[in-house]
Amino acid sequence: MKKRAKLGIIANEFFDPTISRIGGFGMLSRQISRCAESLVDFPLSVQLFHGAPPPGATLPRRVYGRPLHRPRGNWRGEKYTLLFSGARPDVWLSVDYRPNYEYFLLMFQSAPLIMWVQDPKTPEDWERISTCRVPGSEYAEPQGLGFIDCTPLSKLVESRIALGARTIFSVPSSFLIQKIESTYNVAPESVATLCYPMEPLPRSYSKAETPVVTFLGRLDPQKRPWIAAEIAARMPDVRFQFMGKSHFSGPGSWSPQGLPPNIEVLGHLDGRVKAERLGASWIMLNTSIHEGLPISFVEGLQNQAPIVSCVDPEGVVSRFGHYVGEFRGGGMESVPAFVSALRSLIESDAKRLAAGQAGQRWAAENHSQSKFASQLSSLLMGLG
Question: Are residues 376 and 362 in the same domain?
Fold first, then answer.
C-alpha cells in the first residue's frame, strides 16, 4: 500500500450528538480514527463516510478533525463519482454492514474492504427481538428495532470478487463468527480478529463510598431501560446512574420520566466526566434484549466494575459478574433476578472486587489501542 494511504471508515453512527444518535458504532468510529493514524508500518489518513444521515440533516464537513462525507443524490451518475473522487479510499473499514453503506462501497468497490462484524443478528436473534414491547405502549412496535436485512452483503462480496477486490471479515470476539453466515449470507473461508481500540484510562478514579450501579447505553427500546428503572425502585438504598439518552419519541419509545429519586439521569457523557463516573461505579447493569459484544462491557471492566446482565456474549458476564438468564418481551419478570444478583455483589466486597479485577485484566489483555494497531497492521499487510 502507498504511503499515507486513505482509510475510509464507513458507519451509520458517529460519536457526536449533532450528527447521529450516540451508540457503540459511533464510539468505535472515533476510536478507530484516533488509532489508525498512529500506525507505524502503514501510515494512514482517515476519512469518514456516513451511510445514513437523517433526512434533511445538515452535516458538518469534519468530525473528530477528519473529513466527513455523506450521500449526495444518485451515486450511479458519473458526476457523483467525480464529486467524491478526492475522497477515494485505498482501503475500506466498515463498522458492521448496512445496505445504505453501498452508496459509497459500490462507488469505490475496487478498494479492499475490511468488514468488521459488530452486531450480527441471526433469524433467531430477530425472533427474540420481535418479542420486545415497551410498557405502556404494548400495541406499538418498539422504535429502533425494525428488521434490517443484511443479506445484500453477499451480492456485494460477489461483485467484489469479480473485480478482484479483497474482502476480509473480522470480529472483536470469536463468538460472533458463528453468526456471520446466517446474518449476511456469506461464509468466509477465514475470519480475522480485530479487537476494540480502547483508549487507556486517563487516570485511576476512586470508587464511590456507597453503592453505585451504572446503566450505560442509549435509553432506547433495545436496551429496555424501563427494567433498570424498576430495579432501582426496589433498591432505594442504592444509587443508580443512567448514562445515555433517548433517541425516539411517541408510541413505541421510552422516556426517563417519573423515575425513583435514587436514579440520576446524566444523558450523554464523554471525556473526563464520563471517566470519573465510570471509575466510581461499583457495578455495570445491562438489561438489553440483544447485544453483540457491547463496547460498554469493556468500558465497565476497564474500571473494575463487574457486569450484571441478561445477555452473556463470549461468557464475559458469567466470568466477570452475574448472568441472570434470558428474558424476552418487555422483560419485567427479570427484575427479581436482577435485584438478587446486584445484592450478592454489593454485599460481598471480596466477590465484587475479585470479579472487577479479573475483568480489568481481561479487558487490558484483549482490547487496547496497541493490540488493535498490531492487528490492523497485519490485515493491511495481507492486502499487499
Answer: no
In this structure, what C-alpha cell is assigned to residue 29?
Answer: 468510529
180/116 Cα distance (integer angstroms): 11
Claim to verify: residue 145 and residue 229 sit in the same structural domain: no
Q: What is the pTM of this model?
A: 0.93
In this prediction, residues 202-210 reach a mean pLDDT of 84
Could you give the residue ranges of the DSSP H alpha helices within the chain?
Answer: 24-36, 78-83, 102-105, 123-129, 153-163, 180-184, 225-233, 271-280, 295-302, 316-319, 335-346, 349-366, 369-382
Q: 286-337 pLDDT, tens per residue?
A: 999 999 999 999 999 999 999 999 999 999 999 999 999 999 999 999 999 9
- CA dihedral angle for residue 317, residue 299, residue 8, residue 20, rounded to 10 degrees: 100
- CA 60/CA 67 separation, integer angstroms: 9
Please give the Cα distance from 79 to 56 (Å, whole number).
Answer: 21
Question: 101: domain range?
Answer: 5-198+368-382
Query: Are 362 and 221 contained in the same domain?
Result: yes
